[in-house]
Amino acid sequence: MANNLQDTTTLSNGVKMPWFGLGVFQVEEGAELENAVKTAIAHGYRSVDTAAIYGNEEGVGNGIRQGLEAAGISREDLFVTSKVWNADLGYESTIAAYELSLKKLGLEYLDLYLIHWPVKGKYKEAWRALETLYKEGRVKAIGVSNFLEHQLKDLLEDAEIKPMVNQMEYHPRLTQKDLQAFCKAQGIQYEAWSPLMQGQLLDNPELQEIAAKYGKSIAQIILRWDLQNGVVTIPKSTKEHRIVENASVFDFELSAEDMKRIDGLDQHLRVGPDPDNFDF
């Protein structure tokens, strides 16, 4: 279990991935983004998650360089994730997309590279490309995002290497316990995107009550719930006080009863697209 911001989970291939990181979805290129990355590193974050489609890999790279220098740590101390976009799914095109992401980020390698969405008929070729990058030692770990159980099973039929991570929309309104259990059985680390349901849970009365009991914010309660469920989490923020607050979740523990109460908020409700039904 994670006891501090630098604690890691060990992926199926032995690579260590921080339980907690910074997400940068919908944060545009520019000073605000660079500053958020730099600030997170200064406050002890050791994981940053981006994607080609976010259009902000250059800014993330700049923030990483500034942050590493200011903190006096090396590139190896940081875990960086990016994702290949749907339009680039294919063997050669996925490898080219990886090169481009590295170039934009200004990095020699990525710690984790994910297939962003399970585009039917395309993700197997893309997975073959990820396996090649992995076998060549050009990426430390490979995985998927937004893959449901049947899509994972389909991928596993032909895969030589199992995905090490599955990054899913995950919050108290969308717990997908069966999918999480399947991933666990397969040795695939579960990771949450949109853990705070894009702010939609921040005035939930039940969560308010639990938060008051622990003297914490609702965001902190949810992020702690993620961790206690064995889920890696990457909340997004650009504000320093929020970056610090989000990570202040290692000094308390939710009781089994409160964990159950939060689980009970599940309504199978998504804020993002449905992995079974998207057209982009």
UniProtKB/TrEMBL annotation:
It holds the Pfam family Aldo_ket_red. The keyword Oxidoreductase applies. The record marks K83 as: Lowers pKa of active site Tyr. Residues 31-266 form the NADP-dependent oxidoreductase domain. CDD domains: AKR_AKR5G1-3. GO terms for molecular function: oxidoreductase activity. Gene3D superfamilies: NADP-dependent oxidoreductase domain. The keyword Transmembrane helix does not apply. Keywords: Oxidoreductase. The active site is at Y54 (proton donor). Substrate binds at H116. PROSITE patterns: ALDOKETO_REDUCTASE_1, ALDOKETO_REDUCTASE_2, ALDOKETO_REDUCTASE_3. Belongs to the aldo/keto reductase family. This is Aldo/keto reductase. It comes from Paenibacillus agri.
